[in-house]
Every structure is written in structure tokens, then in C-alpha cells.
Specification:
The complex is a heterodimer. Chain A is of the alpha/beta class. Chain A is built from four helices and eleven strands, in the order βαββαβαβββββββα. The model of chain A has no long low-confidence stretch (mean pLDDT 96). The radius of gyration of chain B is 24 Å and the shape is globular. The chains are: A alpha/beta, B alpha+beta. The interface between A and B is medium-sized, with 32 and 32 residues.
């Protein structure tokens, strides 16, 4: 088969788009940027971090209502893989592709540091390279990362310590089909040891090999 | 002689009301550097000058960098004052054709002012430029006059280096970015006064919009990438007037500015208000008429406002019109020729015996964990270790650069000359401590009232000059903030030095378990400095982590950083004089200077 293809959706105000593209290319994806008017032609779609539309309204709320939103929903229905990181997670929640809500950190402040996480579900296409229960280190950088549950969700990673007041220390979840993954920590910032951690590399490797093994969804 | 008399004698007639408004801005200390340009001219320089300093990094890339103060606005309105300080300096770096890659901040205040931290955090985080380092100095000296000095750094490709001038008649100037409102009118003149002056109101404070800034960064870089930019300048103090007149005056040219074309947020602005408004997130781009439509298409694509506002002329006149009405018609060069104040010769003496004036010991984590220091995935050495280290992705032989920002106001208050001198020396040591070779520096002069104490200012800049000359460090850019006074009482002479260094080996030594040594001398003798610098380089090259600080009793932040690595240290901090020649080394080092075990890391 052809090389797995990733597209990174650049919303106005996205600022981790270049880091996400770098990470996708680092593990071997054929990767490119698309914008809110583009069509989707990918096996993996990345909704990157940042401050879409300045996050002047509710975080992710404006981006979730862009023309590309319906195309993303169709892509999810076709079993395409979607990962939303930080602001991308907030956008997925606003789009209704993931349950729950992301509110302001319990201390009211933006928080930027490397934190310890525990992998709870290694059966998703994004986490097959991890062991169940494994402790990993990923950077966080967010002001609105407090996850609030509205129903039962499939928790994939949770914080070891309470960093932002999230329900059940939830840091990342998938939908029921496990093809949509949203998380507040930044795996794309942890792909090289020289950056302080390379634990995030395996998120992209897992997705890459899942597509390799199961075939992509490009039309 | 009052400036109004100088102006009228240069014009040969009475000045109009609009001319008085315009020259109040352009000849303010903030824009015109009247008290400092005589001194600055004598500093050893690097690069060609422009919006920010430029030094070559490798065969393909240049570094653009500059420090700028936003002291007066931050005193009155901490959040927006500090936020727009970040925005302004980012655009200076951007205007050179470089992608902004890092922010550092030097903060002096009497306690942690939440609004200032929040302003920097909110703006820097949103635009996606990591805040990778800084210094936090807490002292009552700054009770009424907090100092907010922000340094921005960018990396550009050599073929994208943009001049800060118009080059030929017939070019046009596009103003683009956010829309223009009344905010920040006379901000430049307010920033040149005692804080009890009548201009110290919130009306002079600009308001920040980081979303617009982020769009502006991407739009401008796209224009640069496509070869559409022939010259550029950001709009800061003095707004349209300052940006357009500087662009043409530097090229020995003139301009006709059409103020009715400037996109407005407030519809009923007077022409002179449009000319001098300091609304943020705007830039001026010099381009050819045939490229202007492409420039405007990019502006529109990035959801910004823009218009062709001026034509470049060859008659040297700066003419601002509103429709057919001439608002201003003066020689462009006159706007740039702010009067020069007398400069003084300072004769340095040998360093006196300094007293310890300790600033409050705080854990800087409380501040820098509110800044995104990792976005961009180029931060190799995060805050807390000393200088930050950044890499350049896709560079030949993986080049990197070190960044530090440092000051010694505790010494400056005792002796302004040595305060500045020692700050430069300690910055060199810090740069070497991460294995970097110093390239150049940017100076942030912060001073009280030069009319009352002119000699302190002379001494401060002389200290900078002598240190730079003696240790071969050129000055690439700088900023001066004077009149940091409240009811006539001023701050200590505070010279903030931002230094950049080049790194060829990105495997920076990190702290490791084992013995810890104090290496060097607990006092200061200038003639020993070069030996110490050589030894630092040798020790770092042997793979040892080196910590170079001025006060080893103040290790709270460093201890926290060590804990983040899963390490702890138990040491007897070396006792030193306030100015010393001592470093801390993790592991035993072969060295020609005295070395003594002080504890261990576990």
C-alpha cells in the first residue's frame, strides 16, 4: 500500500500545527497542512493545539463550526483516525465527536510543564505501542484543560497527580469506536529525547502502524 | 532651548497644531532617543541596524533579536502594558523577515504583579512563541516603577532578510493588520515622563489582540516567502507616522500618505489621530505597485485589514493628507532628527568594595510555568538552568543558539559603570556555561531622570561600551527607557543585557549525580576574567554541567529544576562577594583556577 497520509488542520490561531506536521513526518507519514476550506484526503487527521480564533469565545467553539466540521464528521464515520491535541481536543468536544467538556484549570492559571501520565487503554489505534498501566511523561500547556465528564467515557490516559482538577484525573479519551482520540497533553512535543521526553513518539508510531496493518481510508 | 523653539527655527515659521502633535511623538525620548543617541553612536556595533539586531548564525540563517521595555504602560495597566510589550517586540523581529522563535522577559518589581505575568503569558502563549527564559528581581526599589523588558528572538533564512527602509520612488506602502482605533494616542510621549505626569492615564495604553498578532505573523511570513516584501517596519510608538516616515527617511526619500485609506475601528477619528494612533498588531510593508494586490490578497486570506496607504516619493517631503486636505507637510528627515541632548564624559574608576543588596529569593517556577516554553519543539534547555538553548530544525550540522537576559541593579545602584560592566561579563559567563560562543548582545537601558543625574546615564553606557570592547562582544540592538521616576524618585540604573550565542553541539551537559565543586574566586579581579572564561569553556567541553550565577544563596529555582530531573543536591553554597568569579561545576573538573568540593548531587 501507499505511505500513510496525515493532514494537519490549520485553524486561524492554531499554533502547534508545525510541531504536529514535524511529528507526523518524523514517524514516516506523508503529511501536509490543510485549512478550514479544504477537502480531507488522509488516513490520519490531526487537530493541533493553539488558540483557534484567539479562544475569545468558549475554547474551540468557533473552530468547531467551520465548513470543515461536517467533512471531519464524515471522515470519522468512514473510520478515519482523528487525533485532537489540546485546542484540537477542545474543538472535538465542541463538535460533539467526544463527550464531556473542558473548563478552566482549577487554579485559574495557564500551566506549562512536563507531567506524568498513566496509560489505561492500549487497545486504541493511538496507544498500541504502550503497555497497559505504563507511566509516561508528556508536556502540558493549557489554561482550559479541566476535563468534566457528562457521561461514561473511554479514558485512555490519565494524570498521575492532579494537575488541573479534571474528573477522575482524565487527560485523554476516545469515542466508542476508538478512532477519535482527544487529549490535553502534547505527544507531538515529546518525540525526541533532546526535548525532555520521547514518549509521545509512540502515539504517532501506533497510528502509523495501525494504518499500515489495517489499510487506510483514503478514497 | 525648548523643542518647540528648535522645531520652529528648523521650519522657519510657526508650527501648526498638527505639526506640534506629530513632533511631540517623534521627538519624544521614547522615539527620538535624544538623551542617549550620542552615547549609542559610540558603541561597538554588529549588523546593519534596523528594527532588530541581526547576526549570522550559520551559512543559511540569521538571528534577529532585540530587547524593549514597556515600563510605563505596565505601571499603569499591568495586563495590557505587558501584553503589548510582547506584541511590539515580536513585530520588530518579524519585520526583519525572521520567524519569531523565543521570548525572554526581565522583570523588576516589588512583588510578583499578577497582571504583568498574566499579560505576558496570555499574549505569548496565544501567538505560539515560547517564553524560554527570563529573570525575576523582586525589590522595593521598583515599588512605583516596575520594569518590564522583553526580548524577542527570531530565525530567518538569509535570502529573506528584509530591510527597514524604502529604496526607490514609486514604491508603495501597505499598512495591514488590525484596524486602527484611538488607543495609545501619545503613548510614546507618556512613556517619556515621570509617572505622576498628566499623561499617565489609561487612555495612553495600547490594548493587545494576540489573535490578530498570530494572523499577522503568518500573513507577513507568507509575503516574505513569496518575495513580495521590499522593506518593512512594525507600527509601534508613533503609529503610521513613525513607521512610514522612518521607512522613507532612512532611504533619503519622501512619502505621500493618504490617511482616509487606513482601515478604522472608530469611524469618526480626526486625521491627526489616525496618523499617531498606537493601535497594536499593525505593520507597514514597502512593495512595488504590481505586487501590492498580491500583498492585499494575503492580508484578506488571513482575516486582517489592509490598504495601500502611501506612495514613496523622491522629494524628501513627508506629506500626510486626508482626502484633499494636507494634514502635515514637513521634511521626512526632520521627523527623525530629534534634538540631541548634551552627552557627558564619564571617567571610570576601579571597582569599589561592593555591599550585598539582596533581592528577594523567589521560585521563578511560579512564573515560568505559566508561560508555554515548549511550543515550536525547539527548546533544548528550558527555563531554570541558566541560559535557554534553542535549536534550528533542518539546519546544516544542527546549529543552535543560547539566549540569556540578565541585570545587576544591585551593583548599578552602587556604581552605574560597574553595574553595566559586570552585567555584560556575567552574561558572557552564562553563555559559555551552556557551551555557546557569544555572538552579540542587545542592551536595555533603564534609567531614572537624566536631566537630574546625567552622569549616571553616561557611566552606565560607558560601562556597557568598555565591557563590550574588552571582551569583543558587539551590540546588535538596544532600547532606552528613561524617566522611570515617581514623584521625582527614581529606580536604580538598571542595565538589562540580552545575549545570544552560537552552539554547534546540542548535547548540552546536564546535572548528573556525583560531587559538586565550587570553581574560581570569591572576589573579583578584572585581570583574571579571561582565564575564568577559558576555564568555563574547557569544563563544559569536558561534559560537565556548569552553573554560573551571581548569588549562590538564591538557589530555590535551580533546586526545583533539579527535582524535575529526579535529582537533589546537598551543598554548602560558596560564600562570595557580590561581584565574584565563581562557578559551580557538577563533577570534578581539571582546571587551572582554585576548585573545592562543596557537596554532592544524588
Amino acid at each position: 500500500m501507499s505511505i500513510p497520509k496525515a493532514q494537519v488542520v490549520v485553524y486561524p490561531g492554531s499554533n502547534c500545527d508545525r510541531d504536529a506536521l514535524w511529528a507526523c513526518k518524523y514517524v514516516g507519514f506523508d503529511a501536509e497542512f490543510i485549512d478550514i476550506h479544504s477537502d480531507i484526503d488522509a488516513d490520519l487527521l490531526v487537530l493541533p493545539g493553539g488558540f483557534s480564533y484567539g479562544d475569545y469565545l468558549r475554547v474551540g467553539a468557533v473552530a468547531a463550526r467551520e465548513p470543515i466540521a461536517q467533512k471531519i464528521k464524515d471522515f470519522v464515520d468512514r473510520a478515519g483516525l482523528v487525533i485532537g491535541i489540546c485546542n484540537g481536543f477542545q474543538i472535538l468536544v465542541e463538535m460533539g465527536l467526544l463527550d464531556g467538556a473542558l473548563l478552566q484549570n482549577s487554579n485559574g492559571r495557564f500551566l506549562s510543564k512536563i507531567v506524568e501520565l498513566e496509560v489505561l487503554d492500549n487497545t486504541t489505534p493511538f496507544t498500541s505501542y504502550f503497555l497497559k498501566g505504563e507511566r509516561i511523561r508528556l508536556p502540558i500547556a493549557h489554561g482550559f484543560g479541566r476535563y468534566v465528564k457528562t457521561c461514561d467515557v473511554n479514558t485512555v490516559v490519565r494524570y498521575v497527580d492532579d494537575v488541573n482538577g479534571s474528573d477522575e484525573l482524565i487527560a485523554g479519551i476516545t469515542n466508542a469506536n476508538k478512532n477519535v482520540f482527544g487529549l490535553m497533553p502534547h505527544p507531538e512535543r515529546a518525540i525526541e529525547k533532546i526535548l525532555g521526553s520521547d514518549d509521545g513518539l509512540r502515539v504517532f508510531l501506533s497510528a502509523f502502524n495501525y494504518i499500515r496493518n489495517n489499510g487506510g481510508v483514503r478514497l | 532651548m525648548k523643542y518647540i523653539d528648535i522645531l520652529e527655527s528648523r521650519l522657519g515659521r510657526k508650527a501648526t497644531r498638527e505639526e506640534i502633535e506629530a513632533f511631540t511623538v517623534m521627538w519624544s525620548e521614547h522615539c527620538g532617543y535624544s538623551h542617549t543617541k550620542g552615547y549609542i553612536r559610540k558603541l561597538p556595533k554588529a549588523g546593519t541596524g534596523g528594527n532588530a539586531g541581526i547576526v549570522p548564525l550559520d551559512d543559511y540563517h540569521f538571528l534577529a533579536f532585540k530587547v524593549e521595555s514597556h515600563n510605563h504602560p505596565s505601571a499603569i495597566e499591568p495586563f495590557n502594558g505587558a501584553a503589548t510589550g510582547v506584541g511590539g517586540i515580536i513585530r520588530d523581529v518579524l519585520a526583519m523577515g525572521a520567524r519569531p522563535t523565543a521570548i525572554l522577559d526581565s522583570l523588576h518589581m516589588d512583588k510578583i504583579i499578577d497582571g504583568i505575568i498574566e499579560g505576558i503569558s496570555d499574549y505569548g502563549n496565544s501567538i505560539g512563541v515560547p517564553t524560554v527564559g527570563g529573570e525575576l528581581r523582586i525589590s522595593n526599589f521598583y515599588k512605583h516603577n516596575p520594569l518590564v523588558n522583553v526580548m524577542a528572538v527570531g530565525v530567518g533564512k538569509n535570502e529573506h532578510l528584509i530591510q527597514s527602509r524604502a529604496t526607490s520612488p514609486g514604491q508603495v506602502i501597505v499598512i495591514f493588520g488590525g484596524a486602527t482605533g484611538r488607543d495609545g494616542i501619545h503613548g510614546a510621549s507618556f512613556a517619556s515622563e515621570d509617572l505622576t505626569g498628566e499623561k499617565a492615564t489609561k487612555l495612553s495604553i495600547q490594548v493587545g489582540d494576540p489573535f490578530a498578532e498570530k494572523l499577522l505573523i503568518e500573513a507577513f511570513l507568507e509575503m516574505v516567502e513569496k518575495g513580495l516584501v521590499e522593506g518593512a517596519q512594525d507600527l509601534g510608538a508613533g503609529g503610521v507616522l513613525s513607521a512610514t516616515s522612518e521607512l522613507v527617511a532612512r532611504g533619503g526619500l519622501g512619502a505621500v500618505v493618504h490617511l482616509e485609506r487606513v482601515p478604522l475601528r472608530e469611524p469618526d477619528m480626526l486625521p491627526i489621530e489616525i496618523l499617531i494612533s498606537e493601535s497594536q498588531e499593525r505593520m507597514a510593508v514597502v512593495t512595488s505597485p504590481d505586487k501590492a494586490e498580491k500583498v492585499l490578497a494575503i492580508v484578506k486570506k488571513h482575516l486582517l485589514f489592509g490598504a495601500i496607504v502611501a506612495e514613496v516619493t523622491d522629494d524628501g517631503r513627508y506629506i500626510a493628507k486626508y482626502k484633499d486636505e494636507v494634514v502635515l507637510d514637513v521634511p521626512a528627515s526632520l521627523l527623525e532628527e530629534s534634538p540631541e541632548e548634551t552627552i557627558y564624559d564619564y571617567t571610570p574608576s576601579s571597582p569599589p568594595k561592593f555591599k550585598w543588596i539582596r533581592f528577594k529569593n523567589v521560585d521563578a517556577h511560579d512564573v515560568f510555568e505559566r508561560y508555554d516554553y515548549m511550543v515550536g519543539t525547539d527548546t533544548i534547555l528550558p527555563p531554570g538552568f541558566g541560559p535557554a538553548v534553542m535549536r534550528v530544525k533542518n539546519s546544516s550540522n544542527s546549529v543552535g543558539y543560547s539566549l540569556s537576559i540578565h541585570s545587576r541593579a544591585d551593583i548599578g545602584v552602587q556604581d552605574p559603570y560597574w553595574g553595566a560592566y559586570i552585567t555584560v561579563l556575567e552574561s558572557v559567563r552564562k553563555t559559555l556555561s551552556v557551551g555557546a560562543k557569544p555572538l552579540a548582545l542587545t542592551d536595555g537601558i533603564n534609567y531614572a531622570d537624566p536631566d537630574i543625574e546625567p552622569m549616571g546615564l553616561a557611566a552606565q553606557i560607558r560601562g556597557l561600551k568598555d565591557a563590550c570592547e574588552n571582551f569583543g562582544i558587539p551590540v546588535a540592538s538596544g532600547n532606552a527607557s528613561l524617566y522611570n521616576t515617581y514623584k521625582g524618585k527614581g529606580i536604580p540604573p538598571t542595565m538589562v543585557i540580552g545575549m545570544v550565542g552560537r552552539i554547534d553541539n546540542l548535547n548540552i551537559p546536564l546535572p548528573k549525580k556525583g560531587p559538586i565543586y565550587a570553581v574560581g574566586f570569591s572576589d573579583f579581579k578584572l585581570e583574571r576574567e579571561k582565564e575564568l572564561l577559558t576555564e568555563i569553556t574547557k569544563i563544559v567541553n569536558s561534559g560537565r554541567f556548569v552553573l554560573s550565577m551571581h548569588d549562590y544563596n538564591n538557589l530555590t529555582t535551580f533546586n526545583h529544576v533539579l527535582n524535575n530531573l529526579g535529582l537533589h543536591m546537598k551543598i554548602q553554597p560558596p560564600r562570595t562577594e557580590p561581584v565574584h568569579q565563581m562557578i559551580i561545576v557538577f563533577g570534578e573538573a581539571k582546571t587551572t583556577v582554585p576548585s573545592r568540593k562543596i557537596g554532592y548531587c544524588f
